[in-house]
Amino acid sequence: MKNLIAVVLAVLAVICIAPANAVEEPTTPLRIGLTPTFPNDQYRALEEWRRYLEQRLQRKVEFIRRDSYIEAMDLLRLQKVDFAWICDYPFVFFKDQVRLLAVPLYHGRPYYQSYLIVPAQDSQTTSIAQLKNRVFAYADPYSNTGYLTPRFELQQLGESPAHFFSKTFFTWGHRKTVEAVAAGLAQGGAVSSHVWDTLAKVKPELTAATRIVSKSPEYGFPPFVARATISDAEFNAMQRALLAMSQDEFGRRLLGGLNLDGFVAGDPHFYDRVDQMIRAYGKP
């Protein structure tokens, strides 16, 4: 009997003491959805970034790439990813279903623009109005700079975006829009300033085959967001990791590879201009 009592007491001691001393390591990786918000030449930088985040967070990290913005949003809403780097347009459109995590800094500021581009040999076009009855390339139906902005501008000119061009098509990526215009497959296109400027550094022969006709007003830079049900602990850890990147040498090198300067926590008011366009123009 004494031996039995001793065994029971030993078991109880383990049960009571173990939870206080043990640290449970997360077994599931943090999943980050990515869309064509960056040129695909940056995939190597993204792989280094993934390893950097794993070291910072002490947890496995997976990047899950999708070819359209709506696919990334679907992953968020279905809780298939924990975070995603998305365009400002879907962020505003679905803002009640996600949490704003961080906003990249580009040229030291959390903003970017839409560039209207034409083939380099087109020296005559000075505005989108002159592209009437031409072929035009859109990036994605949920892209602000590659879709909403040019269509909103046409509406402001009193034109119907559905009938203004002779033909339109989606390239499903800003780099692909630059390529389509450079190759003459389209006589015009609209792209993210960040993507065009980055390509001008890493692929200057490509951007040299295009010409920037005009630049839009500034918009809040495509943000990082979290699924609505993310825990505060996971949200705060990821936010701290992103905001701290500019504070260490390796983080700054990674940011340089992405042609970014850092991250800020962000403010929904960065996206007021896009919200106003959506209200005036409507959903995709």
Name its key features.
D-Maltodextrin-Binding Protein, domain 2, globular, six-stranded mixed beta sheet, alpha/beta, five-stranded mixed beta sheet, 284 residues
Q: Care to describe what's here?
A:
With 284 residues, this protein is of the alpha/beta class. It has two domains: 30-110 and 220-281, 3-Layer(aba) Sandwich (D-Maltodextrin-Binding Protein, domain 2); 114-216, 3-Layer(aba) Sandwich (D-Maltodextrin-Binding Protein, domain 2). Helices cover 43% and strands 20% of the residues. The protein has twelve helices and 13 strands. It has helices at 2-21, 43-57, 69-77, 88-93, 144-156, 161-164, 174-182, 193-202, 204-207, 232-243, 249-257, 272-281, and strands at residues 30-34, 61-65, 83-85, 98-105, 111-112, 114-119, 135-138, 167-170, 188-192, 210-215, 219-220, 224-227, 262-264. The strands form three sheets. A six-stranded mixed beta sheet has the order 2-1-3-12-4-13, sandwiched between helices. Strand 1, helix 2 and strand 2 (61-65) form a beta-alpha-beta unit. Helix 2 (43-57) runs antiparallel to helix 11 (249-257) and helix 5 (144-156) crosses helix 12 (272-281).
